[in-house]
Amino acid sequence: MTIILYQAGASEGHHYRKTGQLPDISVQNLIDCTEPYGNSGCNGGLMIPVYEYIKDNEGVGSEKSYLFEEKARECRFKRQNSVVTCTGYVEIPEGDEKALEIAVGTACPASVGIDAGRPTFQFYFDGIYDESTCSNGID
Questions:
Q1: Name one GO biological process term (predicted).
Q2: What is this structure's pTM?
């Protein structure tokens, strides 16, 4: 569920930057409704399916209109409750720090995915995370 939370935050931030209004996007809406796009409800998700869902459905609901329930349920999104829309997105190549710098500096907040599968990361709690066997994917 972490990726979906961050995706909601990036979408809220982009909307604020564009309009000056900070919406509260329903994470539950994204959990419930992005499974057909390849996400796994409370078991995790990816960024692109969230953007595709918001784009295809012309929005995502507010937290107030689609309350968090701590479990995946059937999608109940109603377009009239939409608080944020998406007209497009850019996928930055893995490991391209310069492209990320340009995107954040000129376009919008970014969602960044990381490999959180290592036990050292899952139980991390303080300080600078450093995993000696972790690869950044750059040769």
A1: proteolysis
A2: 0.74
Q: Which CA distances in Å does 83 have to 9, 15, 22, 60, 100? A: 13, 9, 10, 6, 26
pLDDT at 109: 75
**pLDDT (tens digit, 9 = 90+) per residue, 18-49?**
889 988 999 999 999 999 998 887 777 788 88
pLDDT tens, residue by residue, 77-94: 999 999 988 888 888 888
> Is position 129 within any domain?
no
CATH code of 31's domain: 3.90.70.10
Q: How many other CB atoms sit within 10 Å of the CB of residue 104?
A: 13
CA distance 124 to 112: 18
For residues 100 and 57, is the Cβ–Cβ distance under 8 A? Answer: no
Helix axes 2-19, 47-56, angle to 10 degrees: 50
Domain count, the chain: 1
User: Within a domain: residue 34?
Assistant: yes
Range of the domain at 67: 2-122
